[in-house]
Design brief:
mainly alpha, Single alpha-helices involved in coiled-coils or other helix-helix interfaces, AhpD-like, 2 domains, 9 helices, globular
Amino acid sequence: MSLFPVHSIESAPAQARQTLEAVVSAYGFVPNLLGVMAASPAAAEAYLALSGIFEKKTSLTPTERHIVLLTVSRYHECHYCMAAHSMISAMQKIPAEITDAIRRNRPIADVKLEALRRLVTAIVEHRGRPSEQELRAFYDAGYKPAQVLDVLVGVTQKTLSNYTNHIADTPLDASMEPYAWSPR
């Protein structure tokens, strides 16, 4: 038996059941990531709160948000989140060439979006210390200083899920299998 089982509503700790019920209400099922996170009601709730804030309260567009989430997951080599956000990107009609560029660790053709990808990579790679040149390139592409902080919300959200998936070796949900990804 795994130390990190994928919980259902019924098997989850009582404090996590309401959170998982909300997930089922929103998505129609409990994704394996949240089933694993349910072992710690705080982790599941924190992840959902960060996800909601990143999606609804930042100034980034849906495409920009997916670039952040995919880039962090790519850097951390998270097989689960790369598959999940590749699938969600396709469902939300994010251009496939953007998702494919990130999956292959190649530049995005759009200059502004590539500046975002490069800043996210720099933030993760340098542990929150991008250089002045990296920040300047982001601003020169048309972004504002406040958007660096918006990016950090997404980096925080994905770091929590990426690390959870690494520790728990979260299995892909069946719906994600066509989007499976490996760093090699």
